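Justification of resources, computational component.

The compute hours requested in this renewal are based largely on the per-chain cost of generating structure records like the one below. Each record pairs the submitted sequence with a full structure-token output. That output is archived, and it is also reused by downstream analysis tasks.
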Amino acid sequence: MAANVHRQTIDLSGNPDLVVIYLGLRVNTLNGIKTALGFGPQIDASVAAKPHGLLLHERIFYSFYPPNIGMRQYWRDMDSLLAWTRSEPHRTWWTKFLQDTGGTGFWHETYCTRGGMEAIYDNLPGPIGFARFAPNVDARGARYSALQRTGRSPGTEHPTIVPESDIYHD
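The structure output for this chain reads:
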């Protein structure tokens, strides 16, 4: 029987350290709509600047109710992704979000071809993604940073944007 489907796949041998990250911003309050809409032009500008190592950026609309918008990004490697997150404008966005979420919740899930997956879920009213089937634990200590959650040791080349002590005062 002849197939009527033209099937294709990809050759990722030229991208041995590929990292795929899904990010989402969930609107939790009416004020969150304004916050979410305000990020669009900023994200577009940061992508237009062609950050080193960003191979592809795609917008994703996860749900209408509650509004949950986001993106999928393909990065050459984890070092490129981490370097970008520690530079402007991301450093400022993340610092401001951790001080005031603007009526939103944020999440990301990262998948590395060299092994390791990690996720963070901030200010979400319920579980999504990995959090729907894996045990939920506080993002503290060895689980505080994405670098550590992927099983890599923290180093001086990728310092944490906001130290854990600035968030937890206990």
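Strands lie at 19-27, 54-63, 68-75, 104-112, 117-122. Residues 30-48 form the longest helix (19 residues).
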